[in-house]
Amino acid sequence: RSLAPAGPPDRVFTSPALRCRQTVTYLLRPWFDHPVRLDVRQDLRELDQGILRGLTWAEAEQRYPQLCQQLLRTPTLIPIPGAESPAAGRQRAEAFLASLLTEAQPGETHWVVSHAGFLMHLISALLGCPQTWGLDIYPTAVFEFALDVSEGRPAGLEAWNPSRWRIGRFNGTDHLGWALDG
């Protein structure tokens, strides 16, 4: 089964990271002649890990052994020097979602190509959760949400109407040809 849905998107939002832009190019190959609005957005970048940015875990343990031991020993969130705070990541996700919902037109299809850390915040914001869930988001996983934006975010009794907002796929990997167990 193909990763891409049956039809082309109207708009694609992507992180500026090379791997995300390459993914978009690959995904849009079936519709190379179809006009698609492409928005490269800084707000879709991965969460900044500060002094651990770009390091493997082995490299981080060599450079910052005390910090790495603290991270492994405690369930308490330990700030990483220079890193983006979880609250800042969540605010960025909520701001992107608000702009997406404001700009979206009924019947449009939008794709968002981003990174696991940021997507955890975006999915929690989309689902209206006050906390960020620890999801094991697989590389190239597909999340498919169908949102009825004709009247904005549902409120009152409409917030309980499951026909307005639906989840089609969640962390889907069926396009890879094999299942991932989590």
List keywords for this structure.
about 180 residues; alpha/beta; 3-stranded parallel β-sheet; two-stranded antiparallel sheet; 5 helices; 5 strands
Uncertain spans, ≥5 residues at pLDDT below 50? none
Count every beta strand, where a strand is a DSSP E run of 2 or more residues: 5
Class from secondary-structure proportions:
alpha/beta
Largest sheet: 3 strands, parallel
Termini separation comes to: 21 Å
Total helices: the number is 5
Beta-strand percent range: 5-15%
* Shape type: globular
- Strands of the largest sheet, in order across it? 2-1-3
Residue-averaged pLDDT = 86
SSE pattern = EHEHHHEHEE
Overview of the molecule:
The protein is built from five helices and five strands, in the order E-H-E-H-H-H-E-H-E-E. It has 182 residues and is of the alpha/beta class. The strands form two sheets. Strands 2-1-3 form a three-stranded parallel beta sheet. Helix 1 links the parallel strand 1 and strand 2. The longest helix is centred in the middle third of the chain and has 18 residues, at 86-103. The mean pLDDT is 86.
